[in-house]
TrEMBL record:
<feature type="compositionally biased region" description="Basic residues">
    <location>
        <begin position="22"/>
        <end position="34"/>
    </location>
</feature>
<protein>
    <submittedName>
        <fullName>Contig An04c0100, genomic contig</fullName>
    </submittedName>
</protein>
<feature type="compositionally biased region" description="Basic and acidic residues">
    <location>
        <begin position="35"/>
        <end position="45"/>
    </location>
</feature>
<feature type="region of interest" description="Disordered">
    <location>
        <begin position="1"/>
        <end position="86"/>
    </location>
</feature>
């Protein structure tokens, strides 16, 4: 009704459009924050010695591998639980 009073055309998804705008704005904010963190990490890595930089890269690689394995096991567990409920 407020949009109608303001002279805007009526649309059935009026509220959904605003929610979509909020989600996209929030997604942009999160992406921007993530990009800034990555850039800061790259700057810090430039200042590190080769030995420390390589150690950090190995640690990050192993952490990524562990998290991927854990995610795979979680999805496998969810799949088995879903089949068990049927």
């Amino acid at each position: 009704l407020e949009a109608e009073a303001a002279g805007l055309p009526f649309s059935s998804g009026g509220g959904a459009g605003e929610a979509a705008k909020k989600k996209s704005a929030q997604a942009k904010k999160i992406a921007s924050k993530k990009r800034k963190e990555e850039e800061e990490l790259e700057r810090q890595k430039m200042m590190m010695s080769r030995k420390k930089r390589k150690l950090l890269e190995k640690m990050m690689y192993s952490n990524k591998q562990k998290s991927e394995e854990a995610a795979k096991l979680r999805s496998k567990r969810r799949k088995l639980e879903k089949e068990g409920q049927k």
